Amino acid sequence: MMRRLSYVLHFLLLLTFTPQQIYTQEPPTHHIKSVDEVTSYNFDSKITNDYLIEFYAPWCGHCKRFAPTYEAVAQTLSKSNVGVGKVDGSKERSLTSRFQIRGYPTILFIRGWEVRQYRGPRTHDDIVQFVLSDYQYTEPMPMLLSPFGPVGYLRGEMVAVGGKIMELHSWFAKVFRLSDVGAFMLLGSIGLVLTLVFMIWVFIVLEKKLKRD
Predict the structure, then answer these.
(1) Are 36 and 86 in contact (CB under 8 A)?
(2) In angstroms, rounded to a whole number, what is the distance separating the alpha carbons of residues 84 and 117?
(3) What CA dihedral angle connects 93, 86, 147 and 154, to 10 degrees?
(4) 211/158: higher pLDDT
(5) How far is C-alpha 72 from the chain's CA centre?
(6) pLDDT digits (tens, 9 = 90+) for 163-196
(7) Are 53 and 85 in contact (CB under 8 A)?
(8) Where are the alpha helices (DSSP H) in 30-123?
């Protein structure tokens, strides 16, 4: 009798739990710090404090092998309030020119206005140690040539303007069904007209000012 009662109690106990409660309980989720995707559009908003940034290319084998390590570095540095991001150098020509990137991956540490390049082993512990303390033993880029200096800004803007001109050239060639030479001639003509209009406007403004004086 007692054995039958025990079986009944066990059966009722099992009925109080659904199969999902027994077999499909999900483990607690934790927020994992990921690497920021940095572009020329969000660069200034991202770099608000100490920041580690990697320039990479999708076709770069070294970059692919380094990616899991870099993710781990981002998780560790998030505890020290250090931002971690990456730039696709094959797309962001303006930023690669501004930072004078010559190969991939290139790892840079930005602290204030100072930019230092990391040249050590691409291991988790070495990179974290460099960011937290050893960066001070590396000379920063000269301010004149720094990405935050006048030369760096000018270099980046020139590349950006050049890219826009090429996009406009492609648009002209496609819309008006022009050859490359024809599209460049049309683009040059528009540029010449705009320059003349600007010069005429300046002449009129100066003439009015001279008359008032």
Answers:
(1) yes
(2) 14
(3) 20
(4) 211
(5) 18
(6) 555 556 566 567 767 676 666 676 667 767 777 7
(7) yes
(8) 43-46, 61-77, 93-98
